[in-house]
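Run log, item B.
One chain of 716 residues. Sequence copied directly from the ordering sheet:
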Amino acid sequence: MNKGICFVGFILGMSQFLSGQTGISDSSRMVKLEEVMVTSNRLPILLKNNPGSVSLVTPEILSNMTKSTGAEEALRLVPGVRIDNQHDGERVHVSIRGQGILTERGLRGIGVLIDGIPVNDPSGFAPDLYDVDWGTVNKIEVLRGPSASLYGGGGAAGVLNITTNNGGSKPIGGEINQTLGSNGFSKSLIQLDGTHNDIDYRVSYSRTGGNGYRDHQAFWGNILYEKVNFNPSPKLSITQIISHTDYFQQNPEGLNISQFDNLRQANPDANPFNEYQKTNRTTIGFHGKYIFSELQDIEVTSYLRSWNYKETSNKSAEYRNITNPGTSIQYNLHFSSAKIKNDISIGTDLKWQNIDLYKLQSASNPLRKESIDETNIETDLLLANQIISQRSMGIFALYKLSMGKFNLIGSIRSDVMNNELTDKMLGADTAKTTKNFKNVSARIGASYSINNAATIFIDWSQGFMPPSTEELGSNPVGYSGFNTHLVPATSNCSEIGVRGFYNEKLSYEVTAFIMNTENDFFRFKQAGRGNQEVFYGNAGNSRRFGIETFISYQIMKTLTLNVAYTYADYKYVSSAIDPVYTDQAYVLTSPPESGQWLPNSPRNQVYSEVVYSVTKRLKFSLATEYQSKWAIYTDPKAYYGEMDPTIYQNWQKGFNLFHARIGYDVTIGKVNAECSLFVRNLTGAKYMAFTEPDPDGNAYHPGPSREFFGNIKINF
């Protein structure tokens, strides 16, 4: 951690020298954070009064992204969040406070909303973030900590509330944006937007592609997004969106230690089996609000998501055709006196999902030449043919009290989730398997604002994380049906913190929390299962303690420093006792033992960034990214070094990277343009980008060396 701390000290030490520069306006702090409303609680409240930990990613932070293609770029300054970008695209692991770290892909237990439309399926799982074009995002709210009483299974860890740009103030305007960079990277974005009477609109299209920094890591993606805000009267507002995503991503897979010898290597299976993921998805949705009077209003959200997914591996080629509709209704009642304001809401969330899934056995082609294609390399041997139907219903009630400097928010929710699997390869009497879950969760938090510079808050909340579809669908005791031994993971979390704002120069938040989770998940391997060897189980209980800090300080008008720091102490405190996972006759991976660290959880994590406006048009930024060492495996034998060290190495040393960016603005008539150059991993450090607790030992994913990216953005 020393290098990261030294960097912060160096920047602060430079402030006296730089303070001699005058007459330059600061363009990095345009948002008055104390006036921003947070809507992720489902009851809007000022950011400064929010009774719980929350981070706001502003347009200024988003403007300093590298390529605007990854969640790790946008959320780099959010403490408590760890993101592993698997393939230099947008197939990511995301965890908040260690929740979701054991998922093979996607976001487990993290609620994701894009312009008010939920991304999570009925189990609370968000498969990816392909639908987000980060170059068009206006702001992101991140609720950290269990929010199951707000969003059910999609809120066990927290919430990402993503809001994209609205239409511009002119009747017709737009943006042309082009980025080129190392390893064949290219991103082109074109956007049209405007406002006419009661309607503002935005339509954007982007094409992203690259070869990746590892072998067999090429990718391309197309994102089309349309957004219309319609306000026909002061009482009615409607937001309508249509998004279409087409994404292809080769999969180089992880390496074991004996395979790892350079930054570019892919797993030996990746190329001959042409391992990749392909997603083609369309979402149509709207969010509407009608105000009956000052005392009451109603909000309705409805959407339909339809998509096709294909994934190839050295075991099988899997095809999924998915339909995922949903709707939410929330009624809000407001009543107040001269000194007290009360808000009460009741509502329901309904979600459905139907998955038509089949698998064909994979076939290898050792002579295959590397190329970006979707060659069918499977045989006609049918390994699976099934339908998975899911539905969930959540009923919730919310209460907010505002009394001078004191604010309180409470919520309670009841969730029911039903899953049914129909195996078309079996007879009618054995074809169906069901697995249902239900839960009641609650939350209460309070805040007291001493003044703008200090608001103290305290919060207690519960999490509910049911098994995801792929966890349920991998059955360790049979070739079909659900894993009926799985139960939801539940948690309770207590936190205390302070946030404040001072003279638009300083904003900060410091939060300490302790969270206890029952029935955490883990992955294990089982012998004699042919193409299906990896399964999921409940690992026992865990305890997590952490401190999350964010500071933004305008040292002078031309110099701003942002720092996000996370301290994480995440450990298992008990072991699973289910004999399905401890019978060593056929289970090759044991559940974790008490005292083990949760994988992928560095004790210290820092991201610090300084932005210096050399002139009104010229801006320079320098950043450092630090992570301390972390544990990789959950299996006690691998954890304690009792397995083959040429395949398994449990402790991964951390890393410290440096990044730099320079940007220049120019205006000609009514056209504004910005040119920028970004250097990632300035020193060319060799490091491990991320690991996963893979039972096969293929856990290691090296990171890229020094990369260069150039961008030009034209607004008209």
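Observations after the first pass:
- The two ends are 44 Å apart (CA to CA).
- The mean pLDDT is 90.
Flagged for discussion on Thursday.
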